[in-house]
Amino acid sequence: MELINKKVLVVGLGTTGVATSLFLKEKGAKVTVSEIRSEDELLPTVQRFRNLGIKVEAKEHKRETFLSSDLIVVSPGVPLYTPSLKAAAEAGVEIISEIELAYRHIKTPIIAVTGTNGKTTTVNLIADIFESSGKSVFLGGNVGTPLIEYVLNHHDENYIIAEISSFQLEGIQSFKPYISVLLNLQHDHLDRYSSYEDYVATKARIFMNQSNNEYAILNADDLEVKKLSSSINASTLYFNCEKEVPYGIYYKNHLLYFNNGSGQIRFTLDNIHLKGIHNLHNIMAAVAISKICGCPQERIQKTIDNFKGLPHRLELFKESHQIKFYNDSKATNVGSAISALEALDSPLILIAGGKDKGCDYNPLTPLIKEKVKALILLGEAKEKMHQALKSSASISLVETLEDAVKLSFKKALPGDTILLSPACSSFDMFKNYEERGNVFKTLVNKLTEK
Q: What is the CATH T-level fold of the domain 7-92, as seen in this structure?
């Protein structure tokens, strides 16, 4: 992709926008960055960029800058329906996402994992298996390190393992992973998409350029995922818990069986640390990918035995006063909260709420009725959640997470479990879900140490 002297506009100056701008400058492009935040919020990046000859336009997206660009690269947080982007698209300006730009400069095989939930756990498990098998990997994408940094910093690993979000898939054209994975589909990000169907169609873009020389791995337990199989041209493998598959991986009697079409390989789950069906799906996807890429059975088995999971994902971080405390702050949608409730035994005290993402909370009702003895709600979504869930449990509305933790501890008896699984994003009260989870753990530790 020729970039010398091309007028390239980067939209958004977060982590992805910074790395993208530096890469484009290195390639000889004339780079401008458009960012809706003010210059004061962007210092010292603005000064650094200006010293490098990168122009920064802050506080607005100037229509004329968009229309005069040869290429626009959009950061994941910026919707394509932003007015200046829509005007540029109508004028014929090429608009792509950062992962598309990176892909055009990458020859390394890409393993791309998407889905509503479980992406980060799965890519980290894959990376651990590969590294224990002697394969070098670059772990990036939506997981924290932009894919463009692979090219910017001249990496040369055996595989790229990329967590891919729907936001990143909006702007792809030729992006084609060696292996694509769709873990699940649940209602999410309906504050960004016009409908659930629009969200699903965006997720399905991960398969659109693949042929039978590549692989697609699908969750056959998820009916929404399975519906997509007829439109996929890649060689398709399934993972599921309900029945045997001739080509893929399935669960039976606490064992995993991987069928490659000519034989069967067995893995035991006796020593795994991850709880819940959702994590079983994550493990199956990781094992299938690892076998496709030639990882030894004993290395795969040892890694899944030793993998402890990641912070903020159904994390049992404390047991005190015969009460268990789980931090599931990463549960930023209803489906993820349902997975947590399914994985844990009652009686539960559930802390939920945060910034609403346009989702329906009613699907939580059956599990809350079955397992939750007290529901504590907070954040912008608390009134909407209260209306949806008022018949399911004893509900308390509070103002802060500290109030929620104090009340949950007051209500708890020996043998109970206190679970933070918000079913909402964190941005009404916290910088991100990590900050929310860390504050929760700090509050619990202070309270239980008294």
A: Rossmann fold (3.40.50)
